[in-house]
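Posted in: Structural Biology > Protein-Ligand Complexes

Title: Requesting predicted complex, pyridoxal-5'-phosphate in pocket

I'd be grateful if someone could produce the 3D structure tokens for the following input. Sequence and ligand are given below.
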Amino acid sequence: MKKKIYFNVPHLNKNSKIFIKKVLEEKSFTDGYFQKKCEQFIKYKTKAKFVSLTHSGTSALEIAMFLLNIGKGDEVLIPSYTFTSTANSVIMSGAKPVFVDVDKNLNIDSEKLEKKISKKTKAIIIVHYGGFPCDMDKILKLKKKI
Ligand SMILES: Cc1ncc(COP(=O)(O)O)c(C=O)c1O
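-- Reply #1 --
Done. Output follows.
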């Protein structure tokens, strides 16, 4: 018998069906009660000044490129192992994605990252692959060089 290996398993509890029903009844899938609740929760947890949910990771990346004013002539450093949206968001902005090799955790290699920073580098997109955190101490120090 074949065993199915899930990419991810959604966390469901006894309230899940009740909440999904509420969303369906509200007929507001992207800007309703639960969206506001999530934003409030993230704002509280992260102490961020503003929190705005997007309908997908792809649109969040595209919006980030736009808000950072990234475009033609700019370079954005991205991990060589990631979802296509990472590179696509950079290309859509008109900038050039520059791939940086990944380390043994499949995260952007912070040692190799430094060598790829150029005068054209405008941003670094990091991906905490599979939830395993990147070397943020080093990356935040490198950020100051941009
Ligand atoms: C690293 C990474 N970035 C972006 C995305 C795109 O997210 P979404 O499917 O919500 O657009 C994915 C999706 O799997 C992803 O794994």
